[in-house]
Amino acid sequence: MQETKIILSEKEIPRQWYNIMADMPNLPKPSLHPATRQPVVPDDLSAIFPMSLIEQEVTMDRWIDIPEDILDIYTLWRPSPLYRARRLEAALKTPARIYYKYEGVSPAGSHKPNTAIPQAYYNKKAGIKRIATETGAGQWGSSMALAGSMFGIEVTVYMVKVSYNQKPYRRIAMETWGATVHPSPSTVTNAGRKALEADPDSPGSLGLAISEAVEDAATHKNTNYALGSVLNHVLLHQTVIGLEAKKQLELAGEYPDIVIGCCGGGSNFGGISFPFIYDKIHGRNVRAIAVEPISCPTLTKGQFRYDFGDIAGLTPLLMMYTLGHDFMPPGIHAGGLRYHGDSSLVSQLYHDGIIEAKAYGQIACFEAAVTFSKTEGIIPAPESSHAIRAVIDEAILCKEEGREKCILFNLSGHGYLDLAAYSDYLSGKLVDYEYPEEKIKDSLAKLPVI
Fold this sequence. Notes:
Layout: E1 5-6, E2 16-18, H1 42-45, H2 51-58, E3 63-65, H3 68-74, E4 82-84, H4 86-92, E5 97-102, H5 113-125, E6 130-135, H6 139-151, E7 154-160, H7 161-166, H8 168-176, E8 180-184, H9 190-198, H10 206-218, E9 223-226, H11 232-238, H12 240-251, E10 258-262, H13 267-281, E11 287-293, H14 298-301, E12 303-308, E13 317-322, H15 344-351, E14 356-360, H16 362-376, H17 382-401, E15 406-411, H18 419-426, H19 437-444
Parallel strand pairs: 5-15, 6-7, 6-9, 7-8, 10-11, 10-15, 11-14
Antiparallel strand pairs: 1-4, 2-3, 4-5, 12-13
């Protein structure tokens, strides 16, 4: 019998997160205050973040200790299994060896609790009673709701309206864990009301939902804001994925030639790839590919500029690849990838040519997801299907070139609460949205001039 999955013991959960800023050849430019346009200092962020997370945002320490209370909760799903995709390899008739790290084993069904638990922990230690946050497809909102229930913190979630309507079971999961969920744009905040005045039928966007959550946190005592991607501390927490994968591949006598992750804000991609990019920076030959939708092609068609992280301009200005903060992406099912910008860390690595990026339409991604489901048995989240599409393409290229390569990707979540999306695909209702160049240009023309 051949080994299919590689499992670590709970004692082998990483005891530290890896901070890639300690090793990057070029650090991102500093975040700027939205009003003064001067570099942000810790006190600027203290109104919505606990100081412990602010320190993690700016530290240059390579390793950050994981508190025992967080490790205790991590054991509910960590270490997550690493699978050899032998059946997929056979179906593709490829000489490539394909491995996937499966993060859908968490209680929320995705990788997002890896940072939700630490964020709730540090806020609880700071005396915070309530957290306001946003969510696209619902994975992050579910994870933050779960984390809030673990630490006795109230959670309010602003869920992008198109996903609120597409994915009712995500909303029900959040409410089961005790969260309050509003469709965004909502009537609860000034940012939401303004958006509804401009377009009563607005489908919403992550940028708008962020505006609502930040406004909520800034205007209520004992309330902080939590973000599920993009920021440095979020990607820091997610590196447990890649660190575990490294150990597991070592047990299999393997090292990846290619590491692949889908990319919206960057936490999924950064989580699987950063520990291997450390090796690349230090001379190892490994490719890292970030995969995004053609409907929201931030890395592949955006500009490397300062921009706000939200529509209302409440957040600091970040140096990143962006499509413009008022970019309103179409309502594709991969809601977690519908963000106008990217992590400053991922953006800088892409700008420096250390990582690569690809973009796909959702039909090709669902086709890949169904192939994966029929061979490996797991129905992937729509976001994860983008990584699978790239994996299949790379594996087919290996077959065409007669090359054996080791491919690692992050299966960042399951799709069992996204079956309406599969229904649309299987019934032929799914359509591709390639965002028109002229609309991207219009959005980019409104970027702040720094």
